[in-house]
């Protein structure tokens, strides 16, 4: 590999690394919006409703509770407010949905209709570990309350990995 190719690859990697918080923020926004839409459809019968029409009766276990988690959790993740906590609850609810509703029907998500639950579960699991990325309300409230982000040195003292 010659020097100009190596330099252009380093430049591309640098630009991609600089855009990473924004790509993560966009990912969070899209996943939160889609999740909230599922909850709104189930609770209010909008966007095609629950299971092709209508809404889930209030208090019905587990569907109504799952829809509340979807709506509230989706809105919180979308806004980037309490992202990690909301993502943790949302991921758990989707794991429950997959193993309790879908997996008994067949082994693989494509066979049992659980691919959406599996994708939401793992998407939220990713957000638990990465945080909200850019354009999140978490950052606004954290800065306002004086909760400054830790420096790389503080991360190393606590044994936390430092993002590149």
Uncertain segments:
146-164
Strand content: under 5%
Kindly state the mean pLDDT as a whole number?
85
Report the order of strands and helices.
HHHHHHH
Broad structural category: mainly alpha
Q: Quick one: how many beta strands?
A: 0
How would you describe the shape? globular
Count of DSSP helices? Answer: 7
Write down the Rg: 19 Å
Distance between the ends = 24 Å
The percent range for helix content is 55-70%
Oligomeric form: single chain
Taking the sheet with the most strands, its summary is: none
Descriptive tags:
164 residues; mainly alpha; 7 helices; 0% strand; disordered C terminus
How are the elements arranged and paired?
Blueprint: H1 3-44, H2 63-79, H3 83-102, H4 109-112, H5 115-130, H6 137-144, H7 152-157
Please provide a brief summary of the model.
With 164 residues, the protein is mainly alpha-helical. The protein is built from 7 helices and no strands.
Could you please describe the fold and organization of this structure?
The protein has helices at residues 3-44, 63-79, 83-102, 109-112, 115-130, 137-144, 152-157. It is mostly helical.
């Amino acid at each position: 590999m010659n020097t100009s190719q190596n330099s252009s690859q380093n430049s591309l990697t640098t630009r991609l690394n600089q855009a990473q918080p924004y790509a993560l923020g966009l990912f969070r926004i899209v996943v939160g919006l889609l999740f909230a839409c599922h909850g709104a459809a189930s609770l209010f019968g909008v966007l095609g409703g629950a299971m092709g029409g209508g809404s889930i009766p209030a208090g019905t276990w587990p569907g109504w509770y799952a829809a509340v988690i979807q709506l509230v959790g989706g809105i919180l993740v979308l806004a980037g407010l309490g992202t990690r906590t909301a993502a943790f609850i949302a991921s758990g609810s989707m794991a429950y949905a997959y193993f309790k509703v879908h997996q008994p029907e067949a082994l693989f998500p494509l066979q049992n209709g659980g691919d959406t639950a599996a994708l939401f579960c793992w998407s939220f699991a990713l957000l638990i570990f990465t945080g909200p990325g850019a354009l999140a309300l978490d950052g606004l409230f954290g800065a306002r309350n004086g909760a400054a982000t830790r420096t790389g040195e503080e991360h190393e003292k606590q044994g936390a990995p430092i993002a590149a």
